[in-house]
Amino acid sequence: MTLKQKLDTKQRLTLEDGIALYDMDLLELGKYANIIREEKFGKKTYYNVNRHINPTNICKDVCQFCAYSSSRKNPNPYAMSHDEILDTIENSVKNGIKEVHIVSAHNPDTGLDWYLEVFKKIKDKYPNLHVKALTGAEIHFLSQEYNLTHEDIINKMIEYGVDSMPGGGAEIFDEDVRKKICGGKVTSDQWLDIHRIWHKKDKMSNATMLFGHIESRENRIDHMIRLRDLQDETKGFNSFIPLVYQRENNYLKVEKDLTAQEILKTFAISRLILDNFPSIKAYWVTSTVKLALVAQEFGANDLDGTIEKELINSAAGAASANGIAENEFIGLIKNSGFIPVERDSLYNEI
Ligand code: SF4
To answer: 123 C-alpha vs ligand 1 centroid, how far in Å?
Structure first.
């Protein structure tokens, strides 16, 4: 069966198929991805009203691609207090946020109790606010610091009010590339196993992929297929989020940005390979708002949220420091021919 026959009859695609899709004409590839997108969501594009909080940039790890950690090229170490976090949330709740998204560096001083206490304080004050917190990488870091298992940390997260897990820390699963860009942090198998444990607690999470650095196209498809295998097993992922690598202020010497065509093809291919993932998210922070809007035609059905403030990718050159207003977000989606639908963190329509 040819690749086009497989696409026409919606067969599951292999690693080789995924690599070959990059050679397909962009618009033809987009057409196939858009067929699946429209079958699942029609013209709806999801967004949520959320606030990102990055409590500290002091980090024990030394990822080559990182521009955020103060132990890399960022000269401004900081750690927020619980009161600062709660004040931030109070302001954002007034703006109507439904979710707080808390991810951070691996700071030994903001340890497990520090996190658990702030989760409890947030939940006590705002019981209806969805707390999405701690990536697989952070969970692994805490488990090592406290000599606990991943499941021990996960049980505590649930006990103290974490509702879902973000998808960060996945980077690229290929072990050789991973060693070069973030050796020493959570391994691919550990990352996948942490999400497996989380899903088996009847909890949902997201999955990311950092691309556009030193990885190959094959590495990207391999990454997607490892996620697809886990999703077959647990059905616990809400969305896949391809994150475009930002080149500024870090130690990975990548000469060129990815072309818009390569980025759009990667969105479209992820929609086709990840046949068991409900949502493909064009995270405007790393792809730019304009390309995220175009990605709606290439399989993406979710543009993430208003964010309000974001420090991790903006440190590496992304134009995301100050978020985007909700009415502007709605206008942009409408003007691009799609129907904006606010969702909650578990993809229920609001
Ligand atoms: S990517 Fe995360 S874990 Fe790696 S150095 Fe940066 S803050 Fe630390």
So the answer is: 27
Sequence-ordered alpha helix ranges (H) in 161-259? 175-182, 188-200, 217-234
Would you report the helix, strand and coil content of the chain in percent, each value rounded to 5?
A: 45, 15, 40
Q: What does the block give as tokens for 72? A: 């890399």
Question: How far is residue 220 CA from its own chain's centroid?
Answer: 15
69 alpha carbon – ligand 1 mean position (Å):
6
Residue nearest ligand 1's atom 7 by CA:
105
Mean pLDDT of the chain: 94
The model's pLDDT over 71-113, given as tens digits with 9 standing for 90+, comes to 777 778 999 999 999 999 999 999 889 999 999 999 999 989 9
Q: Is this model's pTM higher than 0.90 or not?
A: yes
Is the pLDDT at 4 greater than 80? The verdict is yes
pLDDT of residue 166: 98
Which residues have any ligand 1 atom within 6 Å of their CB?
Answer: 59, 61-63, 66, 68-69, 105-106, 137, 182, 185
- Nearest atom in ligand 1 to the alpha carbon of residue 312 is 7
In angstroms, what is the span from residue 347 Cα to ligand 1's centroid? Answer: 28
Question: Minimal CA–CA distance to 253: which of 73, 106, 56?
Answer: 73
